[in-house]
Amino acid sequence: MTPSKTVPSPLRLYGRDDELATLKSLLELLWRGDGGALVLAAPPGLGRTALLRAAADAHRDRGPVLYATAASAGRPAPGGGPVALLGPSLTTGQSPAAPYPVITPEALARRLREPGAGHPLLVCADDAHAWDPASRSALALAARGLGLGSRTAVLLSAADGTAFAGLPTLHLAPLDEGAASALLDRLTGGTTALGADPGTTLGMAPGAAPGAALGTAPGAAFGAAPGLAPGAAPGTEGIDPVVRAELLREAAGNPRLLAGFTGRLTPDQLAGRTPLPFPLPGGEAVLAAHAERLDGLPDRTRTLLLLAAAAQEHEPEGTGADALLLLRAGTRRGLPRDFLDRALFGAAATGGLLQRAGSRVHFAHRLVARAVLHHAPRSHRRAAHELLATLLTEAGDRVFPGASSAPPPDAPVTAPPPVPLAALVQRACAASGPDAALAARLEAAAGAPFPHAERSAALARAALLATEPALRAARLAAAAEQAGLAGDPARARALLARTGPRTPGAAGPAPGPARGLAPYVHGMLALRSGPAADAHEALLAAAELLGPHDPRRTLDALLGAAEAAWAAGDALGYLDAMNRLARTPPEAGLEHYRAGMCAVLEGRTAEGHALLRRCLDPAGDPVAPAALLRAGVAALVLGDVAAACRAGARALAAVRTRGPDALLPQALEHLAYAELRAGRHAGARAHALEGLHAARRTGQPNSSAHLHAVLALAASVAGPAEACAAHADAALTGAGPHGLAQAVTLATWARARADLASGRPGEAAARLAPVVGTGPGRGHFAARMLAVPCWVEAAVLGGRQHEESRELHAAVDAFASWAARTADPGAPAQLARCRALLAPADEADARYAEALAHHGRAGGDFERARTHLLYGQWLRRRRRTREARGPLRDALVAFQCCSARAWADRAAGELRAAGEPVGAPRNAAEGPLAALTPQQLRIARCVAEGATNREVALRLSLSPRTVDHHLRNVFAALGIRSRTELARLLGPVY
User: Fold this and answer.
1) CB atoms < 10 A from the CB of 599, how many?
2) Pairing of strands 360-363, 354-357
3) Tens of pLDDT, residues 130-146
4) Low-confidence residues of the chain, pLDDT below 70?
5) Of 176, 208, 167, 212, whose CA–CA distance to 195 is shortest?
6) Are 514 and 473 in contact, with CB atoms under 8 Å apart?
7) Which of 358, 362, 351, 307 has the alpha carbon at shortest distance from 332?
């Protein structure tokens, strides 16, 4: 028996903290004298060998290690496993040609205890599933007998746990995105780190050398060259973000596969200066390891697996294969029907490699499908694709989605029936090399009305058949565009990574229409997931390239650039993009929208409004979702919130019916925002939540930031305050780095409105002062006016009316100018309310009456309730307590109807202070707080929140002396002496 030697392995085990903790527990038991067994089960490449080696290196100083690795090729020799583990002592005295002796479980267990000689023994059998059945059985039975006092632990690795059923098994999952990204950073010379200090794994002391946990010298990982960062690819200057996303997507959390990719790609490919090859090189070893399992399967099972892998090629990625198509293909190949039924609808006949979900059949792991195609002889692959193409053509599937397989009515009688798109893709897969004619047919067929995901798959296949690099790049960019529209930005970026450099002129001239296509797709992806300024510039540049050749995409690029500038609060950038649209005259509806928006931003309000009113009911049958979204924007600019809600609902219905999927988050965001403006807070919250899920599913973080802002605004009305704060923080976190000024403004406004609801006007005023001001930190040009009424209310209630009088009156004047230009029915009421707050005592009554009259005509329970609340507060402050009860009562009822709980609590407190009994605040009806009067309870609550006596007086419209008097009585009633005790007493209640 020879102790195992140190084997190079990665310096770190990324994303395996839980697995390392499990191994540490096993070793600690062993070091205390107890034994045990554990099976590490995982498909090839997930790191089960690295974990075994980590455990072996951690134990080496404590006792002997027996380490054996199964042969990687050929049939396992009977009895070979124990010999590999225990060494040649088992065969002493035998002829070299003699078969290995068969060892019983008892004998194997006895022999495993011998090497320890009083020291704990660790037995590691790597790839133990490849042992012969007798040896596996002996090893499993021997491992089951290890326990208390055995001083021997057995650690096995296997492709799955079935070979060692009954033993404790730890299944390894693919690396999560963070761990895979950290590993990629290290492999390409990055510095990203994730997880615990590597020196702390498996009982190592903190500060130990990074390689100590695995027993390998720094720089040895994956054959790194001397002098480089561990694992860095020689010559790597940095990895392109698009290339990075493609490597992570293709590796699918498999660390060995990720290392193989980075080891075979050139520095220029990693940096995005030259196209990525397809398929990516470096994964052959992992695919071969997956394919080894196929060799032991029956012929009919391998045939079905090949058909299933081939049938996925014409489908959108991740959707699997059609079970009925596989049934027809298997039948045509002569496979028994009972076998097909069991394999396709029971999955037992394929050893779990195939799994069914409804009418779709999926591989248990995507790498298995790739391994099947990689392992099969070329002639077998071609025959499978040709068979599937024939079956798809015979059935006429997917010629015209949603219709029968017959040709359209206007097709010539003598014309041959069109070949289905799926059949063309299968024929392309069967092609032995580039085929310009077939590629052209495939490209021509990949249009409407097929779903965007299917178009993307077809165009990507057509690109592989192209003979010219420029044409191949153009088709890949077109495929990326369709993938983006399908809501799969990761797939879109992966296709873009294969188009080549994104530096102008880096790869020579391309055909005119193709030059701007890749930059256009990059810009559209950045619009939803990158900095708004970057998207703006990228789309302007793409429009210049596309202008002479592709009017439709030029218009879309300029509209996208304008949208990016709007989101960033860049009015001049928005005007620049919209004015460029005039160079390519759009259709009438779009021209009215363009000219109207420009006129409004340039101060020609009446002219702009007249043009925008012509956009509110776009023509077309069916109307394009984008046109309906523009109609909603025009309605909001006009202030016609009812029309904005109607347009938003129509846009959402159109997207749900006809797509594209990528537009769903925007449709839901526009509708939710329109509903907020209309005071329909519950509907806005429901649509915004759905939009947030859609944005996450389709990879659109910018849309997520906008939707979080909408949800924060909704929560500032209905509460709770914690939800408002969480959504606002999420919006600010996502919007800040990407320069989304509109989302920042709305989120800040939401936090301030929640502060007002909680009785913290000082904080609200401090948040909003920069937003409504004229300095560099002012809010979005289209949203800042909406926050002015909140700022005026917060400043007045917070006692800042005199020190900021000039700024307040200037803001109200600006709001008045805006209200005169907008059709928003609530604007006149809010303007009158602002003037009432700033008016002298002899004018305020009339101003509040004017505001309430406007509310009566405009509707909107929430804003009307706020005006009632402020009016009641003002009356109570003027000692008109009896008169104050009416508006305060109206405010309370209206807030309750809106489910605005925090606002209702504030109104109830004012009503109690006015002498009208109202139900006690939540959780305050019992306990020591029940002894307090309503006014004392309000004061106690404010003090518990940290407010000074002066701040409490301002908040509750009392004098500081009155607050001090009530606070003394509160202390006496509760038997406490300090504000700290009061905060501790009220903390759990409020």
Assistant:
1) 18
2) antiparallel
3) 777 777 787 788 777 77
4) 1-12, 71-118, 161, 190-237, 346-351, 396-419, 501-514, 585-586, 620-621, 919-931, 957, 987-990
5) 176
6) yes
7) 307
Q: Shortest CA distance to 193 belongs to which of 207, 179, 205, 175?
A: 179
Cβ pair 625, 658 in contact under 8 A: yes
Q: Which helix (H) or strand (E) holds 581?
A: none
Report the alpha-carbon distance of residue 441 to residue 447 in Å, rounded.
11
DSSP state of 313: T
**CB-CB contact of 124 with 70 (8 Å):** no
Helix (H, G, I), strand (E, B) or coil at 281: coil
Q: What is the 3-state secondary structure (H, E, C) of 522-547?
A: HHHHHHHHCCHHHHHHHHHHHHHHHC
**Residue 114 CB coordination number (10 Å):** 12
* The dihedral formed by the CA atoms of 523, 527, 531 and 534, expressed in degrees to the nearest 10: 30
Residues 106 and 140: beta-carbon distance below 8 Å: no
Instruction: For residue 261, give the nearest of 280, 238, 242 by alpha carbon.
Output: 280
Give me the phi and psi of 670, to 5 degrees please: -65, -45
If we measure between CA atoms, which residue out of 634, 632, 599, 595 comes closest to residue 613? 634
Q: How far from 363 is each of 301, 372, 453, 517, 700, CA to CA, in Å?
A: 13, 10, 20, 34, 28
Among the listed residues 960, 935, 809, the one whose alpha carbon sits nearest the alpha carbon of residue 876: 935
* DSSP secondary structure string for all residues of 186-249: HHTT-----SS-GGGGGGPPTT--GGGGTT--TT-GGGPPTTSSTTPPTT-----HHHHHHHHH
Strand partners, 40: 157, 170
Alpha-carbon Rg for the chain, nearest whole angstrom, is: 35
